[in-house]
Amino acid sequence: MTRAAPRFDLLRLPGLRGFLRWRYARFALQVPLFLVALLAVYDGFTGRQIAPVNTATVSVWVHYRGLVALAIAVAGNLFCAACPLMLTRGPTRFLKRFVPEFQFPRVLRNKYTVLAMTAFFLFSYEHFDLWASPWLTAWLVIAYFAAALLFDTFFPAGTFCKYVCPLGNFNFALSQSAPTQITAVNSSICQSCEGKYCLNGREETATTRQPLSGHRGEHVRLEVGGSGFGNRESGIETSGFLLKADRPARGVFPGCETDLFVPTMQSNQDCTLCLNCVRACPYDNVALEVRSPLREAETVRPRADWAWFVVVLTWAGLMNAFAMIPPYFAVAAWLSGVLGTRDEALLLLVIQVVGIGAGVALTLGAARLSARGQTASPLRDWIGVLLPLALAAWGGHYLFHFVTGYETLLPNAVTALNRLGLNLPAIPLPAATRGDGIFLYQVVISYAALFGSLWVAYRKAARGLVLRLVPQVLLALMFNTLTLLIFSQPMQARGSLLP
After folding, report:
1. Rounded to whole angstroms, how far apart are CA atoms 278 and 285?
2. Of 10, 239, 355, 492, which residue is the least packed, with the fewest Cβ within 10 Å?
3. What is the residue extent of each domain of the chain?
4. What is the DSSP code (8-state) at residue 240?
5. Which of 458, 490, 454, 460 is nearest to 475 (CA)?
6. pLDDT above 80 (res 298)
């Protein structure tokens, strides 16, 4: 099967491809975020323990989250591409000389483990008020770096990103609605490529070229189609033949650390947009294609673990925003009387489990009604309807916090740097920015997502009876209504100067 050439390749823009094929391109993108992370840790431990005037809380809970959603909607998974956690690879390469490397347990090679970790993260965010504690936020940043170092030391590179990191998998899930995707320029070139360098990596000297030593193997069977992941689970088989080298060659270009094979990729699932594939391909045959944000939702049938991750994350987006508006506190007060307890952790847990559980049950019910008994995995068939709505729910929520607090980062950063002795001109904190006008943008985002979801449902139902469309329409309308009801309420402006 031959795939059509990309409609428009962003990497063909003047100067961009040359920069991204530069072996230090990702490092250049990571350094600024790493410096911000260092400053956040320093200010989190030594600065004022007030969220709006501390670099730790402002950078993590206001700027990072808002810019992640914006980047995904406009371009793709840019924050994984520039992830500073991957700068731990230098220390891990050194540590690997002294410790054995293990294979990640097969039973954990799915999204169920990271789903549980994501749920725990969202619960902890509310229960421990992470957004209000610079000190805890600084420890969270350190914990992420330590986890990346630990997992990449004892397990193959990419294990942390693919199976452990809640932030990365959050980005993977929402990037399914991104307007870009890695793809092959000409799949026939991939068919004849002996080294499958985009997957295996490339090791090159002045006279030889071979797949990167110690990676996945030399021979890969190309099979376009399948689950849409573009990895070994969708038709890639490795021979087990590994090359051995005593030391790195003059030119070393790592392949995909999450096991994605470019010509079979139909999805952004598990793609960090690191562009290792671009640099590893000696034929310049990898494109960053501009695509419809709905294409993946319409055409890809994900694995069951991915479907479950998306459905829980989607409804968790609503519950995360719901916890910041007055009706949540009214529900918590009522539940406290019913249960006879004032334990905030228990009340939060019950509300989140019931809210997310009800949403998951409604989604499963709608999927089963739409499937009409014709498939054993209806959620996998219809989960695409939720993808645009998920991005709108999380993106609209994060937009509020970003707009009400985006001006606070630079003054706080300058204050922290001056404590380090830089003696920069002080920048006064801005006046509080009200979020009254944001609701209009949230409405536009929500309805754009609703129309996208209805289009996906229509395209999927068009292959069968029209009655298959009705449950999905009702589900999308209900989700959109709940989203707008939440956005219309006064929301806690966490991390900003608003009361």
Report:
1. 8
2. 239
3. 11-177+299-487, 181-290
4. -
5. 454
6. yes
